[in-house]
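note to self: dont lose this again. the chain is below, predicted strucutre after it. 342 aa total, dont forget to put it in the shared folder this time
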Amino acid sequence: MLDPATWGLTQALIAFGLCAAVIAAAGTRITRVVDQLADRTGIGEAAAGAVLLGAATSLGGSVLSVTAAWNNHPELAVSNALGGIAVQTFFLAVADMVYRRANLEHAAASVPNLMQNGLLICLLAVIMLAPMLPDVTVLGVHPVTPVLFGFYIYGIYLVRLTSESPMWRPFQTRETREDVPDDTTAMPSMARLWGEFLTLMAILGVAGWTLEPSATTIAKETGLGLTAVGVLLTAISTSIPELVTSVAAVRRGALTLAVGGIIGGNAFDTLFTAASDIAYRKGSIYHAMSEDSRFWVALTLLMSGILVMGLIRREREGIGRIGAESMAILVLYIAGVLLMFY
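---
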């Protein structure tokens, strides 16, 4: 049972379920810790959501993708990364349904969130262009990989810059919820918060590492294929923290953290592909992408563009309190899943 190479379908499903439960529990707890760190450090919910929460809740998925690439399963590595971005955008629309006071894109509109979404679109566009570029590598790494890392770091710098010195602000309405720090005197110490944050990150990383062999076995035993398993199983299971944390943040009134955590996590998830390219030793992982994976890049670009339009348009009330943009994201994701089977 302890050796993944000997697992059958039953053992793989049990391991998969246990890892998904651990990721959900640890990811849920880490939201409260990041919210408190945002107030303790003064970096704000948007930046904390982009960097701390986004990286922490995405760790399980990133470890899975890198492990899959190292084990010569590039389809699983890429589909897990790209499928995770799509499903997390879908989860943001679900969170919009939970927030009953107004459309979430209206209430949580902010310059950092717009910047993060712009960064995400640029990173996805680079990934989409990569397979069309010459299939060359330097020490087994495609030149697009360092570009992705550099673009992400510069983008996060711009997010922080616009958060500290915005050149414009969204119009304030009674439904707008600004990032107002909580009382830090009642919070745990900084050392305790950082210690808990790092511990939870380690748990998420180990769970993601264990998910890879179970996902590979499930794909082989069921005949679904690595792309389908990556998009539908591993991407969703490793993205459960984003769903739980975004809904929890919305219910606590931390709307900027909810939206920033999802969008920031999505931008961070694009680095799964870059890290997987480094781990993949048979050449450029971008040129090993299947047509299905490229489809999910294009679909996620469309969903992210619609989300930007929603944050700018800021519709107060849509269909049953869910905005038209969120409804479009829900429909697009469900349609994408159905198309995988046809």
